[in-house]
């Protein structure tokens, strides 16, 4: 039975409601700047002007590139290792029970503690933020991979094995579609944490990157410039999520598109 076509306004809701949320946030930001003054909370316009000036001076793109390299580098290392080991551990309950306490210990250590240790071990080099990102996001990618593999459909697995399905096809066509529904939310969470940790590590012990420039803005009491760097970090996170993770999610989960189209 054919379903009636949805009205055009129904499709526009997926765009207008997020825009409404952004507009509400900007409005609250503007109200705060009016009440507290530009020194405490610069207005959105003043922040955008500061960001544009950083772009014209050539500082913005250089710092953003350095921070992006560190955040994505650490995230990719943690994602590949954590997801691979997590999937394997989820398929082997005894291994999962052995590794879970280690992941819990790593997850329980605050990022600031890892930054301090990394500064003692590696100094103010670029390896400090990368290392910190890896050790703080790896437990997240590991945990979601374990949970995804552990909750797989065992009935479907037994049926596939009864047909003597090759191991690679079993992993790709039976396990992975279910595991990905756990991995992508975990990856998005880990990616957001990766940017926060990178900027924090740069702010405390680096001479370049967005964090280091935020530290300079703090010393110079340039609140608008500090907020401009915050906007730059958020923009980078959204670009990576919307241009890399979301297309990858749609490509690896074609069944989800069909569900959304028929719902």
Q: What spatial form do the alpha-carbon principal axes imply?
A: globular
Strand fraction band?
Answer: under 5%
Q: Termini, distance in Å?
A: 14 Å
| Largest beta-sheet characterization | none
Return the average pLDDT rounded to an integer: 83
Rg over CA atoms: 22 Å
Q: Look at the helices and sheets and give the structural class.
A: mainly alpha
**SSE string:** HHHHHHHHHHH
Unreliable parts: 259-263
Plain-language structure description:
It is a single chain. Helix 3 (59-91) runs antiparallel to helix 4, helix 4 runs antiparallel to helix 6 and helix 8 packs parallel to helix 9. The chain has 263 residues and is mainly α. 86% of the residues lie in helices and 0% in strands. It contains eleven helices and no strands. The protein has helices at 8-36, 44-56, 59-91, 93-108, 111-122, 127-150, 154-162, 167-205, 209-219, 223-252, 254-262.
Question: What's the structural blueprint in terms of helices and strands?
Answer:
Layout (H helix, E strand, L loop, with lengths): L7 H29 L7 H13 L2 H33 L1 H16 L2 H12 L4 H24 L3 H9 L4 H39 L3 H11 L3 H30 L1 H9 L1
Helix pairs in contact: 2-10, 3-4, 3-6, 3-8, 3-9, 4-6, 5-6, 5-8, 6-8, 8-9, 8-10, 9-10
Brief synopsis:
The chain is mostly helical.
């Amino acid at each position: 039975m054919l379903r009636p076509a949805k009205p055009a306004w129904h499709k526009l809701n997926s765009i207008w409601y997020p825009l409404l949320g952004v507009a509400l946030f900007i409005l609250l930001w503007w109200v705060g700047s009016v009440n507290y003054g530009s020194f405490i909370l610069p207005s959105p316009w003043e922040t955008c002007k500061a960001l544009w000036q950083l772009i014209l001076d050539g500082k913005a793109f250089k710092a953003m590139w350095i921070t992006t390299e560190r955040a994505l580098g650490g995230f990719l290392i943690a994602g590949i290792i954590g997801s691979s080991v997590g999937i394997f551990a989820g398929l082997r309950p005894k291994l999962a029970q052995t590794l879970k306490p280690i992941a819990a210990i790593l997850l329980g250590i605050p990022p600031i503690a890892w930054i301090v240790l990394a500064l003692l071990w590696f100094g103010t080099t670029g390896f400090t933020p990368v290392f910190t990102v890896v050790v703080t996001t790896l437990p997240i990618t590991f945990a979601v991979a374990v949970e995804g593999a552990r909750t797989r459909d065992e009935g479907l697995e037994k049926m596939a094995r009864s047909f003597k399905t090759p191991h690679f096809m079993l992993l790709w066509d039976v396990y992975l579609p279910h595991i990905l529904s756990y991995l992508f939310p975990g990856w998005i969470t880990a990616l957001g944490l990766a940017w926060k940790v990178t900027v924090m590590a740069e702010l405390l012990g680096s001479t370049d990157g967005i964090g280091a420039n935020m530290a300079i803005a703090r010393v110079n009491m340039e609140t608008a410039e500090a907020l401009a760097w915050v906007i730059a970090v958020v923009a980078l996170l959204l670009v990576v999520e919307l241009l890399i993770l979301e297309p990858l999610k749609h490509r690896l989960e074609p069944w989800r598109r069909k569900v959304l189209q028929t719902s």
